[in-house]
Amino acid sequence: MKNLGFIRVAAAKPIVKAGDVDANLSNIVSMIEEAELKKVSLLVFPELSLTGYTCADLFHQSALLDYAKEALLILAEETKSLHITTVIGLPLVLNNRIYNCAAVLSKGEIYGIVPKSHIPNYNEFYELRWFTPGRKSDSTIEISGREIPFSSRLLFKLDEAIFGIEICEDLWVPIPPSCKMARDGADIILNLSATNELAGKHSYLVDLITQQSARCRCAYVYSSAGSNESSTDLAFSGNCIIAENGMLLRESPRFSMEPQMQIADIDIELLRNDRRHHNSFNDSPDSENIKPIQLPASTYNMGIEEMSDEMLEYRDVNPYPFVEKDESRLKERCEEISSIQAWGLATRLKAIHCDKAVIGISGGLDSTLALLVTVKAFDILGIDRKNILGITMPGFGTTDRTHNNAWNLMVELGVTPMEIPIAEAVKVHFKDIGHDPETLDATYENSQARERTQILMDMANKTGGIVIGTGDLSELALGWCTYNGDQMSMYGVNASIPKTLVRDLVKGYMLDSQNPEVRRTLQDIIDTPISPELLPAASDGSISQVTEDFVGPYPLHDFFLHLMLRHSFSPIKIYRLACKAFKDIYDKKTIKKWLITFYKRFFSQQFKRSCMPDGIKVGSVCLSPRGDWRMPSDASVNLWIKEAQAL
């Protein structure tokens, strides 16, 4: 699809007065022109917005019905020079029955009329007094000498996006029409509504919309009648809500006397990729091959090469997709993740009748998180923490800072601490294999990693425990681990935890701890640069080998990984989104450089992931070869590199 798969949509709430069609028409035209200036491609208005929803028995008046139909034609004429598709609500008569309808307009033409399927007639609603249910209608309606498609089953195609329409109550029934529309190909569902306010109803409504967008793997654009409709016994607040695949993108303030408009750039490619990936979405025996009505193209959709940054002006791109943006929800999410990690390990220990664990503690974030998870698992099982053997193994690059933090943490957490220096053993190994210790190459680094793994494995055999892996998802993606070294363990508790989330998880443990020394140590670990410490320290004793200087910034790599695996995006789309997400942090040249590095490392290092140990899955992105990611170790990266290099 053009424009990287995005289409700009809007939900509008104009000022509407019951029965004043002229004023309503004028206000609606003004909002369409405003949306046009903001380059909106698809705009939806509330239910019966041309006449007002609260007209009641006035809907039986010929004057109102006739002028509503005339106003529809006027609206089409006044907006025919615009590039926007508009969906407007009004009452229409067909075969002596009144229907509550949505009309689709573009370039001066009326392309279809969708009647409301389900008519509420309970509590404060008396719509059956005026309107006929439209779910069985499949016909045409004559408007100004033209036969217009008239059906609740209509779908419309705008550029490459397909949308369907339901009206208010249609969303609230057990099986909303949008479920079938989505199965039949609709990427976007528009809802013209007039929902009155009740205590607690709004939060339920927002949940209903977001959940329907998740269930249908679609975008849901909802526009409801505003406060100017409040009359007699009912209050309306006006809700313009846009959700996409379970995420709330936009929500207007309620109880405003002013017009409201919410705009969002919807990612059609994301939705379609998700539907293809979750194959059960299309597993429906009653899906129909409905041909959408083709609408005039939107001239605002640009090709990838011409796309400018402002084309995603109404799209929030989270630079940290693995991290919850809301602080309160982040804490809750971290608690949930740590519980999943701990329960996974506890289940493994119980299944193999094991009450001992061995962990290599470096003083870095990953091993710290693994230790904290193991402590939590032992507490769950009621096993003495002393049965956790934490081993710090200082080598050629170990600094006092990380060594002291590792030791202090083990002592304060009450596990069994142990120190086994590896320098002399590695020197003997260098001599055995004829390696010059002055040559600081991969052999120099990996020999240390494998020596540490050998110690851990042998100590596990000696104590009857299992080795807990510390490597995280980001390292597995980049292959930033030593094959048959730190790549190997008996159970990897961090295997699906990305690097950008590790720090927040450790911080969560820190904030929950009542031990001031544990809190101090964890804070210093959080502040320590990420490093394998396999090269000698600097002359002042500080860390000389910073991981991100070599492989690139983890925020970028985690961003690339999420969009590649979770959404199956191409290099060019990932690059464009990264440029927006990180526009104030990295320049485009830097983003391109590390994107190429990401693809090269991801493809070339699959062999390490193909034989990775068991590790609990905690999120939607996982690289386990037994579950989420199955890839040949010898697959060619050329296609992806070619596209990335051409950026």
Task: Offer a quick outline of the entry.
The protein is of the alpha/beta class and 647 residues long. The chain has helices spanning 21-37, 62-78, 177-183, 201-215, 268-277, 327-351, 365-381, 400-413, 423-433, 442-463, 473-478, 499-512, 516-527, 547-551, 554-565, 571-581, 588-604, 606-609, 638-645, and strands at residues 6-13, 42-44, 85-94, 97-106, 109-115, 138-143, 146-151, 155-158, 161-167, 188-193, 219-224, 240-244, 247-251, 260-267, 293-294, 357-360, 388-392, 416-419, 466-469, 491-492.
Key attributes of the depicted protein:
single chain, alpha/beta, Nitrilase/N-carbamoyl-D-aminoacid amidohydrolase, Rossmann fold, 2 domains, seven-stranded mixed sheet, 17% strand
What does this entry look like structurally?
- With 647 residues, this protein is α/β, with parallel strands linked by helices.
- It has two domains: 7-296, 4-Layer Sandwich (Nitrilase/N-carbamoyl-D-aminoacid amidohydrolase), CATH 3.60.110.10; 327-645, HUPs (Rossmann fold), CATH 3.40.50.620.
- The protein is built from 19 helices and 20 strands.
- The chain has helices at residues 21-37, 62-78, 177-183, 201-215, 268-277, 327-351, 365-381, 400-413, 423-433, 442-463, 473-478, 499-512, 516-527, 547-551, 554-565, 571-581, 588-604, 606-609, 638-645; strands spanning 6-13, 42-44, 85-94, 97-106, 109-115, 138-143, 146-151, 155-158, 161-167, 188-193, 219-224, 240-244, 247-251, 260-267, 293-294, 357-360, 388-392, 416-419, 466-469, 491-492.
- The strands form four sheets. Strands 13-12-11-10-9-8-15 form a seven-stranded mixed sheet, with helices on one face. A six-stranded mixed sheet has the order 5-4-3-2-1-14.
- Helix 2 (62-78) links the parallel strand 2 (42-44) and strand 3.
- Helix 15 packs across helix 16.
- The two termini are 18 Å apart.
- The model has no long low-confidence stretch (mean pLDDT 92).
